[in-house]
Design brief:
The complex is a heterodimer of chains A (129) and B (201).
Chain A lengths: L2 H7 L5 H7 L10 H14 L8 H32 L9 H34 L1
Chain B lengths: L4 H15 L6 H20 L2 H18 L9 H19 L21 H17 L3 H12 L4 H8 L3 H18 L9 H12 L1
The chains are: A mainly alpha (129), B mainly alpha (201).
Chain lengths: 129, 201
């Protein structure tokens, strides 16, 4: 262990430091170097991956995005026209149903918040494990 | 665990040869860094076979990634950071089986053991306890002691600011001390006694 570094990092090196810093070095097995080089050589022998043919793909990508864009524009135009012709009547809810519906809304909101907090706690627990 | 100027120069020369198409030049890099990388992997998983597999994977990634090394940092810094990423993702894919920190077992029948053996096994208990730490504290401990308590080297390998690393290290030490309250004392034998007491309770 490098004593100077140890003193720089901590003025009072504890037993924990002594034990964790003074670990015997592991010597790689005799075949380790050969097996790494074998894999490297295998990889070096493999032909280089083909580059993505951007020149050929770009016209197709442009055409496809044009078609989808035009389709989306037409869909929106038709939907706006159709919405102008529809008469929307106000939904009439009887007073006897209105109150339970309001309560159900609050229950749904509470359930939503509970679900979100459960997800959040799972995420936090996952990060710390 | 830093490279001397000679080693750094050899690394640069070998990298240049590899990039020029000499595959065999990579052997020099593996020969120089196999020990540190296997030991680093060992500290991550404490399984010799797996440590060699992970170190091999790290060398392969280094081979593939050599053209991306910008030489802004030393080769060893780049290699250790790359290896840490490989080990982290490998252990995420196939985690090691670790007991929770509170369930780390004491060595069997400590009273009948020879003192040296007793001390050795109690040291091993602590080293294994490091792997039971929560992930955000485990890696700083592994890398700090791997880098012979060089805070800046460990921070560079993890890609974290030194302050963050220091804070996590301090928290990790506190967790270990809470599990092994007698570690600040001169002898480690009370650790085993404490563990025994904890088990009986």
């Amino acid at each position: 262990m490098n004593r100077t570094q140890m003193n720089n990092s901590q003025s009072d090196p504890s037993k924990i430091d002594q034990i964790l810093a003074n670990e015997e070095d592991l010597i790689p097995s005799s075949g380790f170097l050969a097996s790494v080089m074998e894999r490297v050589n295998d990889e070096a022998r493999m032909p280089a991956p083909l580059p993505f043919p951007w020149k050929r793909a770009i016209p197709g990508i442009l055409l496809a995005s044009g078609v989808f864009g035009w389709g989306a524009f037409e869909f929106a135009r038709q939907a706006i026209q159709a919405s102008r012709t529809i008469n929307v009547t106000q939904l009439q809810i009887p007073a006897s149903v209105e109150r339970p519906l309001e309560q159900a809304g609050w229950v749904a909101l509470a359930l939503g918040i509970s679900f979100a907090s459960w997800l959040l706690s799972r995420r936090i627990a996952g990060q710390s494990s | 665990m830093t490279a001397t100027p000679t080693i750094a120069a050899e690394d640069l020369a070998d990298v240049a040869r590899v990039l020029a198409g000499d595959v065999q030049a990579f052997e020099g890099i593996v020969r120089r860094w196999q020990g540190p990388l296997v030991n680093m992997a060992w500290r991550y998983c404490r399984d010799r076979g797996r440590a060699e597999e992970m170190a091999q994977e790290a060398f392969l990634r280094a081979w593939r990634g050599l053209p991306q090394w910008r030489q802004e940092s030393s080769f060893s810094t780049w290699l250790f950071a790359l290896a840490a990423n490989v080990f982290r993702s490998e252990l995420k894919r196939f985690p090691t089986v670790n007991l929770p920190l509170e369930e780390i077992a004491e060595p069997a029948v400590p009273a009948q053991q020879h003192n040296a053996l007793q001390e050795k096994s109690s040291h091993e208990v602590l080293r294994r306890a490091v792997l039971a730490l929560p992930h955000r504290y485990r890696e700083p401990v592994v890398l700090f002691y791997f880098h012979e308590m060089d805070m800046s080297a460990a921070a560079r390998t993890m890609g974290l600011p030194e302050g963050t690393l220091k804070a996590r290290l301090s928290r990790a030490r506190a967790l270990l001390r809470s599990r092994f309250p007698h570690l600040n004392q001169e002898s480690l034998s009370p650790v085993i006694a404490a563990l025994n007491t904890g088990k009986e309770a």
